[in-house]
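hey can u run this one w/ 2-amino-3-ketobutyric acid bound, need the C-alpha cells asap thx
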Amino acid sequence: MKKILVIGANGQIGTELTTALVKLHGAKQVVASDIQALGRHQELAYEKLDVTDAKRLAEVVQQHDIGEIYHLAAALSAKGEEHPEWAWNLNMTGLLNVLEVARQAKLSKVFWPSSIAAFGPSTPRDNAPQVGAMDPKTVYGISKLAGEHWCSWYAEKYGMDIRSLRYPGLISYSAEPGGGTTDYAIQALFAAAAGHDYTSFLDVDSTLPMMYMPDAVRATIELMSAPKEQLKAAGSYNLAAWSFSPRELVDIIQQRYPSFKVAYQPDFRQAIADAWPRSIDDSQARQDWSWSPAYSLTDMVDDMLLHLVKRKPVTQERAA
Ligand code: AKB
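ok here u go:
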C-alpha cells in the first residue's frame, strides 16, 4: 500500500496531524519530513526536506512509494510581512513543487492548508462567506489565495484530487506556532500557565476566528476521508469553531487564575488582524462532510491550561 508523506511534520499542525495519521494508518504507512535535521516522531521514517527543492522532493516521493501528501510547511502572516521574499518563495515554490510531483507521480490525494488570511477588507467581517470578495493584504494571505487558485487549476486541468481548508487561528500546546498574528492567544495561555503576566500585541477588542488543534486535525482527516462526490466547494473550505477577542480570552483565563494580568501594546500585527474577518460561515463544510467542532471555547482554555501546567508548574498563588 502506498504511503503518506507529511511535509512540515515538526510544525504546529504537523506535529499533531502526523500523530493522528499514525493512529489511523499505522507507523509503517506514514513518512514524516521537515527542514530540520531530526524528526519529532521517533517511530516514523523521517526525511530532512526543504520543500522548495523539487528534485529532493521527487526523490523522497519515489523512494518511499508515496501516494498522498499533506503539505504543511509554510511561512505565516507576521513573519511573512517581515521577510516577504522568503515567505513568497517558501509558500509558492513549495506548493508548486508539491502539485507538480503529485501530478507526475500520479498521487491519489494532496492536502494543503489555506487560511482566513486569504480574506481581506472587502470580505464581510462577520460570517465571511465561502464564496465572495477576497483581497488579502499580507504576503502570506496573497500566497494563500494564489495557492487556492493553483490547486483549483491543477484539479481542473489534470483531474487531481486536491483538498484544502481555510484554517482559522489554531491553538495548541505541542509545538510552537510559526510567526502568526493569532499567536497572541497561545502566548497568553502559555504565560498564564507559567505564572507570568502577558503583553498582547493585539488590541483588547480585536476579535478573530479561532479553533483548538484537535478539532482542526479531525477536520483535516474528515475532509480527506470524505467521498469526493460529496465535496461541492470549488476550492478550499471555510472552517470555523468560535471567535474571541483578547479581552474575552483573558476574562476566561482570569476566572481560573485571578492574578493573571495582561497589558496591551498593539504593533504591526494589529493591521493584519484588522483586515481579517471576525467570524466565518462554514455552512458548506457542515453540509458537505458534516463538519462540527467538538470543543467549546472554555473547553479549549481548560484543556490547554491542564496540559501546560502539567508541563511547567505554576506558582501557588496563581493556581486557582
Ligand atoms: C496566522 O496568524 O498567520 C495564522 C493564520 C490565521 O493563518 N495562524
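Residues 76-77, 115-117, 140, 167, 169-170, 180-182 surround 2-amino-3-ketobutyric acid (CB under 6 Å). anyway lmk if its weird
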